[in-house]
Design goal:
The protein has 198 residues and is mainly alpha-helical. 81% of the residues lie in helices and 0% in strands. Helix 2 packs antiparallel against helix 7 and helix 5 packs antiparallel against helix 6. The longest helix is centred in the middle third of the chain and has 31 residues. It is elongated.
Length: 198
Amino acid sequence: MKAENNNALENLKEIRTLMERSSRFISLSGLSGIASGIIGIAGGILAIYLFRTQEITEKLIPQVILLAVLVLISAMAIAVLFTVRNAKKKGLKCWDKMSRMFLLNFLLPLALGGIFCGILLYYEIYQLIIPAMLIFYGLALFNASNFTFSVIKFLGLIEMCLGIIAAFIPEYSIYLWTTGFGLLHIIYGIFMFNKYKG
């Protein structure tokens, strides 16, 4: 009887795992969060240095924007690299219906945020660019969380809150940006790595 119960439990676990794999994108890697966070902190420190050593002029803004784009591209590239590695390690498909849904729901708010930041730049409303980055990034995470681990939803909510705070205290917005794109990603990455072993 005990052996039958154990077999039934094992079967239920296997069914749950299969359902999870078919309904969620589960290849996300905790290491990608840690690496992205380190890149975010490095970019934030460099931006803080630029703001402290130079006057905020039209010449400085393109430098900071270029830095933000480089941080974004580097963080996304490292996230893809670790995610593909994690999928191979777990014997999962990296490119399937769930990963496509995750990407679509992540990239759409992110692209809209990029366009909105471009509009703010065009109208020289510089103090709202960093808050907008945080808010739209948070929206992207929140939106994509329906197709992956639920912890992403909480990360997205915190990013949006940081963006709203940054809008009210723009003098601290670069520190909040560094916290959102740096420190929070490291914390999230450590949590993911410990919980899901990848």
